[in-house]
UniProtKB/TrEMBL annotation:
Listed CDD domains: LDH_1
Name of the protein in its database record: L-lactate dehydrogenase
Enzyme class: oxidoreductase
PANTHER family: L-2-HYDROXYCARBOXYLATE DEHYDROGENASE (NAD(P)(+)), L-LACTATE DEHYDROGENASE
GO cellular component: a single term: cytoplasm
Gene transcribed to yield this protein: LOC106776606
Domain Lactate/malate dehydrogenase N-terminal residue range list: 40-179
Entry EC number(s): 1.1.1.27
Species, as recorded: Vigna radiata var. radiata (Mung bean)
GO MF term set: L-lactate dehydrogenase (NAD+) activity
Biochemical pathway: Fermentation; pyruvate fermentation to lactate; (S)-lactate from pyruvate: step 1/1
């Protein structure tokens, strides 16, 4: 039977009969779609390993009504779109579209940027910078033009500096430009602590702050399991622990990405879950605290225009606030070093 779509998107059968109305007449008359439910649209820029892991986690977790993919390679993009669309029978209903043309992103609530070069085995995140800045000069302006009220969530590396670049290129207030930050590093940290103590990672509260990468800072002093602060508990119980053991867990966190990249070529699943977790907090106004890249100027005595991972509350307006975590002198010193490392890199950029 020949069928085509009407301008309203419903299916038309022979003689122009509106099949959607024919099938669902009584239901549609009884219950017009609710005007109170908010429609959400997420665009993912870059349909590579990371973009597709994020897209598929967003779909399975039913986080949006519309999902748009943008990439520079049309065939691969269409292939990825069709492959996801073919899973429609197993997924919550979501409209999935893809194009190389940024007009498709118009009206997005959240734009997640994953496009760009990625590290090869042994390469540092900072080494990707100049190539990805050039790319961002092409990507950020059209996103802003088509979705002036959107929230930008940056994932491409080096994520802290690129979040700063996106902020500068967009002209957005800093609460609407967020870097995926150390949400992933903190998840790796929580996994390793949970593994060490044989508890559930979801019961471990632990943050990695500073740079996403080699100069990140582990906040040992504020780690708790099931609400019990770990280090002060061990000290009160006079249970000895080796500082070296703490250092080795942190080292394992910073080396995690290098290890996965050396084994499978890229990282994808954990960043997919991590970013979907951020998308949920933002779009569902969850007001949860995540370690993400925020404009750190004015917090913890930082005075440069630098984006660093700090524990921030996320909701519909983007960054709602930065929590006042207690840092030891050593943690503060390391955070300052992270800020200095990033500022030195930024000083050499032409945006
Ligand atoms: N922040 C974090 O925690 C993490 C960040 N990453 C970063 O994410 C980025 C992407 O990594 P992968 O997906 O593995 O790389 P990939 O190479 O698989 O995908 C990159 C995609 O970007 C697309 N692209 C290139 N130029 C474009 C343009 N002008 N417009 C739209 N799309 C364009 C490419 O066609 C490709 O599909 C890398 O920078 C990587 O380092 C990866 C894992 C974790
Ligand atoms: C590649 C990267 O940044 C990560 O997996 O942490």
């Amino acid at each position: 039977m020949a069928m085509h779509k009407s301008s309203s998107g419903s299916a038309l059968g022979p003689g122009g009969l509106d099949l959607t109305q024919a099938f669902f007449k009584s239901v549609m008359n009884a219950a017009p779609s609710s005007p109170t439910k908010r429609h959400t649209k997420i665009s993912v820029i870059g349909a590579g390993n990371v973009g597709m892991a994020i897209a598929q986690t967003i779909l399975t977790q039913d986080l949006t009504d519309e999902l748009v993919l943008v990439d520079a390679i049309p065939d691969k993009l269409r292939g990825e779109m069709l492959d996801l669309q073919h899973a429609a029978a197993f997924l919550p209903r979501t409209r999935i579209q893809a194009s190389t043309d940024y007009s498709i992103t118009a009206g997005s609530d959240l734009c997640i940027v994953t496009a760009g070069a990625r590290q090869i085995h042994g390469e540092s995140r900072l080494n990707l910078l100049q190539r990805n800045v050039t790319l961002f000069q092409k990507i950020i302006p059209p996103l802003v033009r088509y979705s002036p009220d959107t929230i930008l969530l940056i994932v491409s590396n080096p994520v802290d500096v690129l979040t700063y670049v996106a902020w500068k290129l967009s002209g957005f207030p800093s609460n609407r430009v967020i870097g995926s930050g150390t949400n992933l590093d903190s998840s790796r940290f929580r996994f390793l602590i949970a593994d060490h103590l044989d508890v559930n990672a979801q019961d471990v509260q632990a943050f990695i702050v500073g740079e996403h990468g080699d100069s990140s800072v582990a906040l040992w002093s504020s780690i708790s399991v099931g609400g019990v602060p770990v280090l002060s508990f061990l000290e009160k119980q006079e249970i000895t622990y080796e500082k070296e053991m703490l250092e080795s867990i942190h080292r394992e966190v910073t080396e995690s990405a290098y290890e996965v990249i050396s084994l499978k070529g890229y990282t994808s699943w954990a960043i997919g879950y991590s970013v979907a977790n951020l998308a949920r907090s933002i779009l569902r106004d969850q007001r949860r605290v995540h370690p993400v890249s925020v404009l750190a100027k004015g917090f913890y005595d930082i005075d440069g225009e630098v984006f660093l991972k700090l524990p921030a509350q996320l909701g519909r307006g983007g960054i709602l606030g930065v929590t006042n975590v207690h840092f030891t002198q050593e943690e503060k010193h390391r955070l300052m070093n992270s800020a200095t490392t990033i500022l030195q890199v930024q000083n050499h950029l032409t945006i």
